Amino acid sequence: MNAKCILCERVDELDNREFKTKQLRNKPIRMYLCPECEHRIAINTISRVNSGHFNFHKPAVISNSELKKLIDTNTK
Ligand SMILES: [Zn+2]
């Protein structure tokens, strides 16, 4: 399976046996990041955390039906 990185638009050949590939195939909404972009983002995030101007927000918990509604309204 091929996946395009959402940041640099590089197309990668993914290993079909990997769990990540399976997840991506089953849920096309999930975005793919190539390892380089993932690494770059990780470094930026760590430096931001270390700068002290970064607050962790608890992820909002929404039910599956609410999520479905949200997706439906966004795709229309
Ligand atoms: Zn990339």
UniProtKB/TrEMBL annotation:
<dbReference type="Pfam" id="PF09963">
    <property type="entry name" value="DUF2197"/>
</dbReference>
<dbReference type="InterPro" id="IPR019241">
    <property type="entry name" value="DUF2197"/>
</dbReference>
<protein>
    <recommendedName>
        <fullName>DUF2197 domain-containing protein</fullName>
    </recommendedName>
</protein>
